[in-house]
Amino acid sequence: MKVLRLTRATFVALTTAAVLMACQGCKSKPKPKSDAELGNVLGMQGGDINMGSARPLGELDMANQQRGMFSPVFFALDSAKISASEAAKLPAVAQYMKANPNKTLVIEGYCDERGTAEYNRALGERRAQTAREALVKLDVPASRITTVSFGKDKPIDSGHDEAAWAKNRCCEFVIAGP
Q: Which CATH superfamily groups domain 35-176?
């Protein structure tokens, strides 16, 4: 009888543990973020994409945006460090921003498709912040620069080789304002 009680108690404990472990797998998984949540520059939704700006992205005048005025700054794999050759591109951006005080700059950070979405969004953010910090050192007011990370979610080049990946490891500059 004593053995039967011990066996029954062990059975109850094991069953409870099994039920608890099964319930762990029932947790809802986070749904992928939509383009708006990731920071579609045209929509400019707030949330976790507003990095480094004193103003919410939704307050920026994106109706008059200009893309491609400046060369993108490219980065090495898994890096947010701007090389000397890429840093040489930044004075042109700074000069334009200082000459046009009514303009706002959005720095978009991108990554290649390798790595998780979360890792790449964080890396894209670090890249955009690094470019922002470099422009602030060149006397562009920080209040006129906003950063956004698209990570690997909006690739510049949709290819799946080293040439495409190299193009996607960058920051692009978008001028906004009247």
A: OmpA-like domain (3.30.1330.60)
